[in-house]
Design a protein that fits this description.
single chain; 351 residues; alpha+beta; Killer Toxin P4, Chain A; five-stranded antiparallel β-sheet; 7 helices; 37% helix; 22% strand; disordered N terminus; GNK2; Gnk2-homologous domain-containing protein; GNK2_sf; membrane
Amino acid sequence: MYYRASLIFLFFFSFLTSFRAYAQDPNYVYHNCPNTTTYTRNSTYSTNLRTLLSSLSSNNSSYSTGFQTATSGQGTDSVTGLFLCRGDVSPEFCRSCVAFVVNDTSNRCPNEREVVLYYDECIVRYSNRNILSTLSTNGAVVMSNGQNITSNQQAQFRDLLLSTMNQAASEAADSPRKFDARKATWTAPQSLYGLVQCTPDLTRQDCLSCLQQGINQLPTDKIGGQFLVPSCSSRYELYPFYNESAITTPQPPVSAPPPPGKGGSSSLLVVAIVVPIIVVALLFIACYCFLAKRTKKTFGTASAFDGDDITTAESLQLDYRTIQTATNDFAESNKIGQGGFGEVYKVIIVP
């Protein structure tokens, strides 16, 4: 029991140690610093370079966005630089990666003016030329995993790889961070993982052009491959080499309404018919209520006025003989006009 607990403790301790080492030391991939242009240690360019690197690795740099540019000095001694962290790493790890690489420049490129250092998690680049917002595909590096895809699966794998990576390139070019990562099902339980990234200062077209160039040079018969140039990078593997939980999965598009002729027109017709029926019904009810109110007002409370006296219509009801006598048998001399219900006669009632 004690032996088993000791093994578990040792395993846990080794995991923490390796994790700590990973967190402190990013994975070196490649560096490119041609010695065509160099500087001396105590030169003005050297001073400007130290200022630039200090600015890139300062606490005020944009680690949350994963991208920062800087310029130091003027004229022929000016230096322009940038760092770019992989789109899935945290701001904290981005900061530690940049600090590590900045310190590593003096070891790998001690006196070159043109420098690019590639690490899995970040890159640092500087030059005596203006490198900002400018596409650069110089010094391309292509790497591959030594293991081949099975020969009878190579065509299928190539189609899946190119389709996945080209989709990622299109999404990356359209995004503000110029980054995209995604996976696709290969053979159960394996998935294909792909990642592409450009420096965010590139235009959409320059980013897409750079990524497409890299994708076309990836080894499609290997289980993993990588393409690196100063302005962009592309990589694929059959294992998750990036932090999947930090990648935002695109939401599926909202379903569009059915087009006319496939249920859409008939549905609209039914709605249109229902609406007129409701409108007609409401108009009918409104007219009925209005007429009912007018009728009640006219006949329910009608009054006859005789000077200052008010007599209700009910008390003015007379029989036919009384009316015949009062009008002198409907004599023409007592006729006073024509109404909506016929002739109107003057009635003389003798109390």
